[in-house]
């Protein structure tokens, strides 16, 4: 190691809780919900004095702690093999002759 080399070490601490629930496809409907709680701390300088002294301390991360996601799919019950209009014929193009 040369005399000009600088060793930099950072520390991160993270804790998380995740939850996911899903309803399988039943009667054309599916639903998914998820939640994530995340708490993190990063090595950062607190102020200008810490920058000068190269003093790193664990600071709370500015990222969101709570994240909630939800989604669903609904298939409309029309068409072949479905509840409504299952015996309906395909739409035929209109042909005109002049």
Question: Radius of gyration in whole Å, from Cα?
Answer: 29 Å
Topology as a string of helices (H) and strands (E): EEHEE
Category from helices, strands and their pairing: mainly beta
Strand content: 35-45%
Tally the beta strands. 4
Uncertain residue segments: none
Shape label: elongated
Q: What can be said about the biggest beta sheet?
A: 4 strands, antiparallel
Helix content: under 10%
Average pLDDT across residues? Answer: 78
The helix tally amounts to 1
Distance between the termini: 91 Å
What is this entry, summarized?
The protein is built from one helix and four strands, in the order E-E-H-E-E. By secondary structure, the chain is mainly β.
Task: Summarize this structure as a short list of keywords or feature phrases.
1 helix, mainly beta, 4-stranded antiparallel β-sheet, 98 residues
Protein model, in words:
With 98 residues, this protein is mainly β. The chain is 6% helix and 45% strand. It contains 1 helix and 4 strands. Strands 1, 2, 3 and 4 form a 4-stranded antiparallel beta sheet that branches.
List the helices and strands and how they pair.
Layout: E1 12-26, E2 29-44, H1 48-53, E3 57-60, E4 66-74
Antiparallel strand pairs: 1-2, 2-3, 2-4
